[in-house]
TrEMBL record:
<keyword id="KW-0245">EGF-like domain</keyword>
<dbReference type="GO" id="GO:0005886">
    <property type="term" value="C:plasma membrane"/>
</dbReference>
<dbReference type="InterPro" id="IPR000742">
    <property type="entry name" value="EGF"/>
</dbReference>
<dbReference type="InterPro" id="IPR008979">
    <property type="entry name" value="Galactose-bd-like_sf"/>
</dbReference>
<dbReference type="GO" id="GO:0038023">
    <property type="term" value="F:signaling receptor activity"/>
</dbReference>
<protein>
    <submittedName>
        <fullName>Milk fat globule EGF and factor V/VIII domain containing</fullName>
    </submittedName>
</protein>
<feature type="domain" description="F5/8 type C">
    <location>
        <begin position="147"/>
        <end position="303"/>
    </location>
</feature>
<dbReference type="InterPro" id="IPR000421">
    <property type="entry name" value="FA58C"/>
</dbReference>
<feature type="disulfide bond">
    <location>
        <begin position="67"/>
        <end position="84"/>
    </location>
</feature>
<feature type="domain" description="EGF-like">
    <location>
        <begin position="99"/>
        <end position="141"/>
    </location>
</feature>
<dbReference type="InterPro" id="IPR050633">
    <property type="entry name" value="Neuropilin_MCO_CoagFactor"/>
</dbReference>
<keyword id="KW-1015">Disulfide bond</keyword>
<feature type="disulfide bond">
    <location>
        <begin position="86"/>
        <end position="95"/>
    </location>
</feature>
<feature type="domain" description="EGF-like">
    <location>
        <begin position="60"/>
        <end position="96"/>
    </location>
</feature>
<feature type="domain" description="F5/8 type C">
    <location>
        <begin position="308"/>
        <end position="465"/>
    </location>
</feature>
<feature type="disulfide bond">
    <location>
        <begin position="131"/>
        <end position="140"/>
    </location>
</feature>
<dbReference type="Pfam" id="PF00008">
    <property type="entry name" value="EGF"/>
</dbReference>
Length: 467
């Protein structure tokens, strides 16, 4: 800044020195060799002398975060060196003031926006909730459509092979690989997220959903590396049908690529919904601003294009115990208290005995679900379990269906030439989702194990609808 109060113009000139210093509030900028110009109320990141006939390259004022209370610092333009995006509950040029009133704390659920409205006229006076896409209700508490399913980053339905990235960071002498396959929401461990290379100037992480799907939103999360919090503070989203030509989500108000608010710490989850939802097979997240490094864990929200992919009731218990039967049942050590009943085969069931296990390990075993009425079945999610330390799961299986429980049809491949064998699980806890290329209508569904680890053990959910 010179004595006329103007900022030094950016230039690539190598003439003269430029210093990068963290100045406290109330410091002065050096001008013509003297500390004469007072800094305004914000803290500056640089000491840039504007001597006569000398131009220096300006630094990024957000190298030091001037925003308090978790605010996000963004580099300004023209006469504004920086500005702050304040978290909910804070205002001010550097987010140092606390907001008060009926909107603080925010009474709106699901990232709804609280807006002040005087004399609203009902029990919730002085405010209304502006709901994000997909939610309604006085406080945005209701989901207004069904396309809000977690697609499987955390649960494992999206496999490691479906994830890729522009680069990968290798830590601890190159022994720690922070690869894209680790970018799963709530992933645990010392190395538990994706981090881009320090040399990657345009990093991205991509998920291939293997088919065209409707995407409603994304949940992001940071991580800790060597005891330090790292996270993506702002990002863009691009999508594609073929993996070659990508389109960025747009901000209609500004006619520019939309920048989504990211995280403010390493552990809290931040949800952003797409308005409107997007249709894609490939989706990329492009970090725009990162804290220390571009480190990310995330989950995708969406649904199948046919709109018929709702859980049919294994996990929720809408399907009763009496509707679930099996060819046989195993008892650990022959003790009744450790019986692995068919109705234990519910996705994510917990407990000592928390799945169905067959008495024999052979291909004559089956698990059957009676849906009571004919339903359209579009997919299945499977999961293994652990029996007193022994990891057990079904690695491959067939599916059969029936309207009467007597005459069965084996599900065939897309051409109808041969019986389809579905890939199952590879551990005892991850979800493995398989979508039927051609949905079928049936009342009864059977899972027929073909390959397994240790014992035939299964937890599961059926997907479909009442069509």
């Amino acid at each position: 800044m010179n004595r006329q109060g103007r900022w030094c113009s950016p230039t690539t000139s190598q003439e003269g020195p430029a210093w990068r210093l963290g100045l406290p509030r109330g410091s002065c900028l050096e001008s013509d060799g003297g500390l004469t110009d007072m800094v305004q109320s914000w803290t500056l990141c640089s000491l840039l002398p504007c001597l006569q006939n000398l131009r220096t390259e300006a630094c990024d004022f957000c190298d030091v975060n001037h925003c308090q209370n978790g605010g996000t610092c963004l580099t300004g333009i023209n006469e504004t060196p920086f500005f702050c995006i304040c978290p909910e509950g804070y205002i001010g040029i550097d987010c140092n003031e606390t907001e008060k009133g009926p909107c603080h704390p925010n009474p709106c659920h699901n990232n709804g926006e609280c807006q002040l409205v005087p004399n609203r006229g009902d029990v919730f006076t002085d405010y209304i909730c502006k709901c994000p896409a997909g939610y309604d209700g006085v406080h945005c508490q209701n989901s207004e459509y069904s396309c809000a399913v977690l697609l499987g980053m955390e649960g494992g339905a999206i496999s490691d092979a479906q994830l890729s990235a522009s680069s990968v960071y290798y830590g601890f002498l190159g022994l720690q690989r922070w690869g894209p396959e680790l970018a799963r929401l709530n992933n645990h461990g010392i190395v538990n997220a994706w981090t881009s290379s320090n040399y990657d100037k345009n990093p991205w992480i991509q998920a291939n959903l293997l088919r065209k799907m409707r995407l409603s939103g994304v949940i992001t999360q940071g991580a800790r590396r060597v005891g330090q919090a790292e996270y993506v503070r702002a990002y863009k989203v691009a999508y594609s049908l073929d993996g070659r030509e990508f389109t960025f989500c747009k901000d209609e108000k500004q006619d520019a690529d939309k920048i989504f608010q990211g995280n403010v710490d390493y552990g809290t989850m931040q949800t952003n919904m797409f308005d409107p939802p997007i249709t894609a097979q490939f989706i990329r997240i492009y970090p725009v601003m990162c804290r220390r490094a571009c480190t990310l864990r995330f989950e995708l929200i969406g649904c199948e294009m046919n709109g018929c992919s709702e859980p049919l009731g294994m996990k929720s218990r809408l399907i009763s115990d009496q509707q679930i039967t099996a060819s046989s049942v195993f008892k650990t050590w022959g003790i009744d208290a450790f019986t692995w009943h068919p109705h234990y085969a519910r996705l994510d069931k917990t407990g000592k005995t928390n799945a169905w296990t067959a008495l024999h390990n052979d291909r004559s075993e089956w698990l059957q679900i009676d849906l009571r009425d004919q339903k359209k079945v579009t997919g299945i999610i499977t999961q293994g379990a652990r029996d007193f330390g022994y990891i057990q799961y079904v690695a491959a299986y067939k599916v059969a269906y029936s309207d009467n429980g007597t005459s069965w049809t084996l599900y065939r491949d897309g051409q109808g030439n041969s019986t389809k064998i579905f890939h199952g699980n590879s551990d005892n806890y991850s979800h493995k989702k398989n979508v039927f290329d051609v949905p079928f209508y049936a009342r009864f569904v059977r899972i027929l194990p073909v390959a397994w680890h240790n014992r035939i053990t299964l937890r599961m959910e059926l997907l479909g609808c009442d069509e």
